[in-house]
Amino acid sequence: xxxxxxxxxxxxxxxxxxxxxxxxxxxxxxxxxxxxxxxxxxxxxxxxxxxxxxxxxxxxxxxxxxxxx
Length: 69
Ligand SMILES: [Zn+2]
Known about the structure:
Helices cover about 40% and strands about 10% of the residues. By secondary structure, the chain is mainly alpha-helical. The structure holds zinc ion.
């Protein structure tokens, strides 16, 4: 009755997660944390892929310049 299941900390929210079949999303505590982590990776890749593609820094400066009265 006093069986200690090993636990891990969720990499996203540090919540304790039981390492066992009852935690299908381990080492994450939930599907949400898992998706957030996967999303972060996907986001990073997306950002890198877009960066240097056709982002014009001049366009940004022009935008703030037109803010002058
Ligand atoms: Zn979590």
